[in-house]
Design goal:
Blueprint (H helix, E strand, L loop, with lengths): L7 E4 L5 E4 L3 H10 L8 H17 L7 E2 L2 E2 L8 H4 L6 E8 L2 H8 L3 H18 L3 E6 L2 E6 L2 H17 L10 E8 L2 E3 L2 E3 L1 H11 L6 E4 H6 L8 E9 L8 E8 L15
Parallel strand pairs: 8-11
Antiparallel strand pairs: 1-2, 3-4, 5-7, 5-8, 6-7, 9-10, 11-13, 12-13
Length: about 270
């Protein structure tokens, strides 16, 4: 059976279908091939990019380097910013705006300023805690830290700052956050490795206002847990694409919410 048009990121004016995105493997392939596709015009490229980003988010893929409307070629020279990112054992913090599509529908032209404000708050908290922005696209923001404790501090500060901010039309703007670490490889286009994909899965099972932390981060932060913070066990769950069940924890601190619906774990 042939795939429907919605299973492709790009369908040209002649009906030719390009960049299939119906499963995780094809989404990854589409991300790698995006910059080699000849689009009819910039508008067609932008539409395809948005569809591809939506598909990547659906499968919990963090497309490092997919930002500013372009995909960096893997043949490009490493930028100075990437060259200064930490290597070895690092901790990732990924945030994602909850209900961003609904916010966009309500705010329309007012959404870009809100997105800029959210990114500014997140970036300020990351920098204050000693972290580095790795990538930001759409409603997601990925940061990296040389140690786990600063990542925890940044996540808490992000949630506090968002709660204290007054948003247009009395709206509530909330982000879910995930924290996980590992030893990824730093390439010319960013970090590559299971840790990058795992932090995406950890983030996307949470809810707006919630900070979900992996067991790896809990163990790594055990001797340097920031004062006033605690980790509450959320159980062990299977995350899409991750070979082993993962124990997950909720980071709690004064001023943050502590009661959330069950994690957004898809039934097997």
């Amino acid at each position: 059976m042939s795939l429907p048009e919605r299973a492709f990121a790009y369908v040209d004016a002649n009906g030719r279908r390009r960049l299939p995105i119906h499963d995780e493997a094809h989404v990854r392939n589409a991300l790698a091939r995006f910059d080699r596709v000849a689009f009819e015009n910039d508008a067609a490229r932008d539409r395809a990019r948005r569809r591809l980003l939506q598909a990547a988010k659906r499968f919990g893929i963090v497309p490092i380097g997919f930002m500013d409307g372009q995909v960096r070629s893997e043949r490009s020279v490493r930028s100075p910013d990437l060259a200064t990112l930490p290597t070895g054992a690092v901790t990732f913090l990924l945030t994602d705006i909850e209900g961003s599509t609904a916010l966009l529908r309500r705010l329309r032209d007012g959404y870009p300023p809100v997105l800029r404000d959210v990114r500014s708050l997140i970036n300020a908290a990351v920098r204050t805690a000693g972290g580095r922005k790795v990538d930001a696209h759409g409603d997601e923001f990925l940061a990296v830290f040389a140690r786990p404790a600063p990542a925890l501090l940044a996540a808490v500060e992000i949630q506090r700052a968002l709660l204290e901010r007054t948003w247009p039309r009395g709206l509530e703007v909330r982000v879910r956050a995930g924290i996980h670490g590992g030893r990824p490889t730093l390439t010319e286009t960013g970090y590559v490795g299971l840790a990058v994909h795992t932090v995406a899965r950890v983030c996307f099972v949470g809810h707006g206002g919630q900070i979900v932390v992996s067991a790896q981060t809990k163990t790594a932060a055990a001797r340097a847990m920031p004062s006033g913070m605690r980790l509450r066990r959320l159980g062990t769950h299977r995350l899409a694409g991750i070979p082993r069940p993962a124990a997950l924890f909720q980071l709690e601190a004064q001023g943050l919410g502590s009661r959330f619906p069950p994690l957004r774990i898809s039934a097997p």
